[in-house]
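Suppose a colleague, Dr. K., hands you the sequence of a protein chain of 662 amino acids and asks what its three-dimensional shape might be. Before reaching for any lab equipment, you can write down a predicted structure in token form. Begin with the sequence itself:
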Amino acid sequence: MPPGGYDAVKKDIAKLLVQSQDFWPADFGHYGGLMIRLAWHSAGGYRSSDGRGGMDGARIRFFPEFGWPDNTNLDKALRLLEPIKEKYGPSLSWGDLIALAGLESITSMGGPSIGFCGGRIDAADGTASLPLGPSQEQDAIAPCPVDGECEFPLGQSVLGLIYVNPAGFRGIPDPNATVADVRSTFQRMGMDDIETVALIGGGHKFGKMHGACLTGPGPGPLEDPSNPYPGTCGTPGSSDFGKGINTFTSGFEGPWTTTPTEWSNAYFANLLDLEWELITGPGGNPEWRPLGLDPSDPENGIRMLTTDIALRVDPAYRKYCELFKRNQTALDYWFARTWYKLQTRDMGPATRCIGPEVPPPQPFQRPLPPPPSELPNFAKVSKAIKTVMLKTSKDAKADVVSSKPYFGALFVHLAYQCASTFRATDYQGGCNGATIRFRPERGFPLNKGVKSVLKVLRPVYRKFSPSLTWADLIVLAGYVALEDAGGDDMKFCPGRSDAPNTPQMRRATRVLAPRDYIKDPILSVRDNAQVMGLSDVETVALAGRLRSPTQQKRVGFSGSYNADPSILSNDFYRLLLSETWVPVGGAVPFGNITVSTEFQAEGKDIFVTASDLALIWDRSYRAVVVDFVSNEDYFKSSLAEAWVKLMNADRFNGPIGNVCHP
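The predicted structure, expressed as tokens, is then:
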């Protein structure tokens, strides 16, 4: 927290906004439009498919985001903020500063706010943005065969832009043809129709577009790192060459309203009440101007983009445009909440937020009820888990060990599936809440049968409820099974709560679906590990957890690598290296060839998956496998550390704190 708190920072920003500087004059005497654009574009790269992108990290300062065409001239906004960052130093992150600059810009011009979530942590470089593209990493994970028509799992439809081409789908200024592009892109970034309309119309109420001439902004930061986007419009050598009225940023020119420094619903009145004609702007791009106005009418100077007109022609979008036109209060409500969501959705639950203006948890933050005020005796709970672990159940098929039922490996599978939805990219997911009990999570492919396993644990839950939550029970069952199988002792951290089974929670959980669009086994394993925040050692160790042959068959495989799933050992790794593996499953792409999804040890009833073999196909992972084969104690200690980390990953206490590791 900066000295004087966030209020002190906001006061400094408020002064900056109205102090126009010669190197980059403020439009209409106010930098609000510029700072809103900076904050919007810093956050707008977020995509719900894997939680990548967003404001946290402030990676707009680095390549690739810094060099995106959509971020032209935002280097000037960062330069304007540098004195404030220097004043507060490490106590104020760039991420929080940019978010505050956007919020203070909105409120200083009369716009609404529901609060501020502080606590963003700055990235050291732009590596985490490489999968956003354009890059080799992006092309491998989420290729876009036709730029301008990018689809899920990418967020944007045009690489290097935040959302869509403002000129229209494929650059064609057809509003009707552009509607689907706008809707798809905003949905992939987690916004529904009313949020999309509120964000576009509210954001475009401020500032203006810049496209003063045909020759563009000049060399970008890759071509001229010392002076990117110097401008080419105007008279060379003049004081306003390349800036002010001669600025070129997006290549479109003009404000959306006649009052670009004042909050209102005028954008929607203009959009719906005026007729619009297509023209070519001074920047050479298609844009829309009012039709049939008196030459003296100041509204002659306003402009709309094809993406704006798309909101007018689509019935669903138009419904919300009409609502916001007639009801300023409704616009205030939705814009404030949608802006907060835009700026905060990569921050995870509200428990990671700090500051005096943190609003109540919002739906996108998957708010959970408080845990029980009194917790059970977990030694007794563990004993009860062991009892049902070795007991026949009418509700579920158990593994069989020495002719006796054994549910331990299924308990480990349940706990892992519950916790492995965690994403370090946007701090979503994890087992806190135990949403694996409900759809859609319960219906994820590898979760087939978890409903029956939950029924096996139900007597334990009933015995200790209401002081025992399902979330704690699921996690503890995994601990008990691993330790009983010979794993290292692990410290259990209780206090989880159970999510309600509401439509709101189900919608928030849908984004955690498995990323099965990556078919290359090595790339899939590596990408999952990166999203979950796991190291190579942790990734390889977790793969060696107890594995249920019953569960493997239930989800469509032929079997498992082990006949006795009740013993934890390094046999998994030894088998990977020592056996000859024959493909027996369906084929998936792997580089320039295809590989099977399942493999059998030659001449033996032993089966592994392509993801398992990726651990020896990848050289870095293979080195860890070799270490685990040579030292079983190292494997067990590594598994215990990785297991505890994953099970507790979602137990937030502020931006970097964890209630389990004070």
